[in-house]
Structure formats: C-alpha cells, structure tokens
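Protocol step 4 of 6: structure prediction from sequence.
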Amino acid sequence: MSKTLYEKIWEAHAIVDGADGQTLMHVGRHMVQDGSMHAFGFLKERGLPVRHPDQVFGTPDHAVPSYTHRLGEVRRPDQQRILQLLQDNTARFGIVHFGMEDPRQGIVHVVGPEQGITQPGMLLVCGDSHTSTHGALGALGFGLGASDILHVLATQAIWQKRARTMRINIDGALPDGVGAKDLILAIIACMGSNGATGHVIEYAGSTVRAMSIEQRLTLCNMSIEAGARAGMVAPDDTTYAYLHGRPFSPRGRQWERAMAYWKSLPSDPDATFDRELDFNATRLAPMVTWGNSPQDALPVDGRVPDPAAEADPTRRAYVERTLDYMGLRPGMPLTDLRIDQVFIGSCTNARIEDLRAASRMLKGGRAVVPALVVPGSTQVRLQAEAEGLDRIFLDAGFTWGQAGCSMCVGMNGDTVGPGKRCASTSNRNFVGRQGPESRTHLLSPVMAAAAALTGRITDVRSLEI
C-alpha cells in the first residue's frame, strides 16, 4: 500500500496501539532547553532515571542574555537560576549539554539541524512548539508539554494520536525580494491560523525542491502557526549534502545504511493525502503582518483592513480590537507604518543565510532606529564574524548579540517597550509577545533590514541591494 512520508515515519516508530485511539511511539531524539526544568523536577521527585540519556541533547536558549554567555555574569537571579538548573540537570542525568560557553550552544531548533542531531526519518520532540522546524530534514518533529517531557525522559516514548495528512504543493520561482518567510506568511494568511489543525503538512513542489535547507527550516518552523502538528519536507540530495560531515551525522558504513533508509522515505508517487492545496509562488510579494496573529499578513503594498468591510460581526470585532491594540487606522498603507525598533533573530530567521541577506541590504547604510541582531547559535555567530557580517551590522548601528531566543519572546530581558512598534523576523506577533503592550510586525530578514534603514515598513523591491 502506498504511504506518505508521515505514515512511513509513524509506522516505523509505533510500538503499540492503545484502547483510546492513541499509539505509543518510540522517540529517536529529545531536545531539552532551559524551559524543561519542571519535567526534570518531576523526574527527581519520582526518583526516576533518564531512560536513554544518549538520545537527549540540551542547550539553553530562552533565558540566555544577549550581552554575555558567562553564567556568572547573568544579572537577573531568576534567569541565572533556570540556566543553572539546565546545567545541573543535564550533568546529573548524563545528558549532552551545549552550555552557555560551549561553541555548539544556540536556539534548540537551530542547534539540532546544525549539529546533525536532526536526521531524516526520526521522531524528534522538544518542549517548544516550534519543534516543527526539524521537519525540514525529513524528520517528524513536534512540541510537548511538561508532563509529556517527563514521560519521554523516563521512557523514551510518547503516546500520540495519529494526525491527518496534508500536502501543500508550491510551484514556480520566488520573485525577487521574496523568501521563505514571505512564502509561509502567505500560506498562513490564506489558510488561517487553524487551517491545518489536526494535520501534519508535507511541503512539496518545484519551489520547495529548489530551496536550501535553511529556507526549508523557516518554512517548517511556522507550520505550527497554521495549527499543524508538524511540517515536513521529503529528504533529497539537498538534505544529504547538508547533513554530510556534521558532528552527529552517521559516518562510514553507518552513513551508507542511513542513506538507504532516508531514500525510502519520500511519499510514494500514488500516496493519497487527506487534503491537498496548491500555491503559485510566482505571484507572491514581500509580506508583513498588521495584527496579532501570523494569519494577519498582507503583501507589503497592501493596506490595513477596514472593519466596516467585514460582514461577519465576530471578525469585525476582532479587526476593531486589533487595530486599537496595534495603533493603526483602517485603510492606511502598510508602508506608512513608522517603526521604533528592529529585531533580527529567532529560530525562524537567525541562520547564516538570514544574516547574509540582511547584511547585503544594510551594507554601507545606517539604521535610523534602535536595532538588534541575535544569531541563532554560537556557530552562526562565529561564521558571521568570520565573513565580516558582524562588522556590517555594527557599522549600520545594530547591536550584535550573543546567540539565543532574545526578543522573540523577551524572556531574557530583551523586550519592546509599551506602545512601541517592532519590525521583527520572529514567528509570533501575539498581544504582548515581545513585552507588555508591544506591537510586533513579522517580516523577512531583508525586510527587517530595510525597515531599519528607513524607519518604516518598506518594500524591499523599491530599494537597491
């Protein structure tokens, strides 16, 4: 019987079916970060060991300050405590830990692929919703809550209900100025924040096949913002080339055996999906959000919605409430929006290709608003410095931060002030996401760089790069 990529991975990891419709699944890799402290606390209370510490990897990200990577220099005691807890818990249970001063440290969803921990055909979990990122390498990755993290630590398995399958076919070349972030924002705007609820998305088509792994990581990262359980891309030659030689990738005969398995994973040609959608990439424009959900995205040459034009009273009330929070007038051009600061970072857009794209826009220019760039990992930071990208950002007036989640969620103290408007490459624009009363506009790295130079939302197609 023909099977999809998701179905093949599911069946390879299923241990036993339960009476309640759930299946006990073997977990290949488990990533833990500084938010996993409660699960470790439960583990200690019950006197349980970690079942397979060799399959668990830890790295601090959410609470890591942008100004230092020395634990003793962290100023806030609560921040220092949870970073210390991750260090202590990983040492106690024998888990590999990429600590603050380890050159392999970074955002968990950047580090996994970067180190070759994430591999095709794996089931990978983490206590963070953006674990969908790892699907870019042909893995099944999804986020867990604290009780489920405890279960995986203790058993290396997780009870799950089988998801429905969805394939999104994307074809055509992306126009100039349009990247993976614009593509996924356009998809979410089209299908809505609940459009893929209950599904695992497989991205396919000529556009996806032409993408680098870093672009695919951005695409899969935001699948969760469409309500999907996970996002995936079938492994191909681009995947194999990316993984070859990475520290935790298979080597020698193990590589050959892995390749044989990986090549069996793509969905069979006649496999059927519960739902299929088609997108024409050639018609896309740079995207920017105006509201408090990633689905509130429009082409940059669009205008802020008018609630009076909404026939549905619930939708009308939402638009009115959102415009009030965001301080926007109905019908105003998005390019009239002045911004107060810029953030380039997060597990969505803080990889080396993102920093290269933003720096090309910034080279020789000067930011007119405060701007912060935070690499997704220390490896990305070191690579950027080797290429001189840090100098371009610094010359443009940006602050060059240490790797971590930073202003994406503001847990490390990097926040947007009340009523301030931020052009951000992160993944969520929820109310207060970047700080109380903060106003977030999601966009691509090159769009964020353009906004830094002009102090307003700017169509990158109108600028010379």
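Step 5 (inspection) to follow. Residues 451 and 457 are 5 Å apart (CA to CA).
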